[in-house]
Amino acid sequence: MTVVDDGLSLVFAALADPTRRAILERLAAGSATVGELAEPFAMSQQAVSKHLKVLEQARLISRTRAGQARPCVLEPTNLDAATDWINRHRRVWADRHDRLDAHLAALRAEQRDGGAEETSAP
């Protein structure tokens, strides 16, 4: 197994799991304890804690202290970094797609024009 150590890779690895994405969606509404986060899932609090550890390592959440409880809080900064990366690459891919479309349109036009000349020749 490959060890992932750069921040962006940690974020994408954390987001790859649907349970972790659901946890982040829940935390977008406000802080929650492990017990509260575990409620909608058919898994133990220990399993949810493992997901939270991955989210913490990716710096997508943090845990605060509120008396005996340690509620989890969404930390959107690394999500913003991932969004920025996606948007930068989306522009590159869109540009490549646009150039491919233009090239294919030119080929089709060339083919149409070439086909018209052949049919009008004596």
Overview features:
mainly alpha; single chain; 67% helix; Arc Repressor Mutant, subunit A; 5 helices; 122 residues; 2 strands
Please report the first level of CATH classification, the CATH class of the domain at 3-77: Mainly Alpha
The strands making up the biggest β-sheet line up spatially as 1-2
* Gross CATH architecture of the domain at 3-77: Orthogonal Bundle
Globally, the shape reads elongated
Q: In sequence order, what are the helices and strands, one letter per element?
A: HHHHEEH
What this model shows, in words?
The chain is mainly alpha-helical. The protein has a domain at 3-77: Arc Repressor Mutant, subunit A (Orthogonal Bundle). The protein is 67% helix and 5% strand. It contains five helices and two strands, in the order H-H-H-H-E-E-H. It has helices spanning 7-15, 18-28, 34-38, 45-57, 77-120; strands spanning 61-63, 72-74. A hairpin with an 8-residue loop joins strand 1 (61-63) and strand 2. The longest helix is centred in the last third of the chain and has 44 residues, at 77-120. The radius of gyration is 25 Å and the shape is elongated. The model has no long low-confidence stretch (mean pLDDT 87).
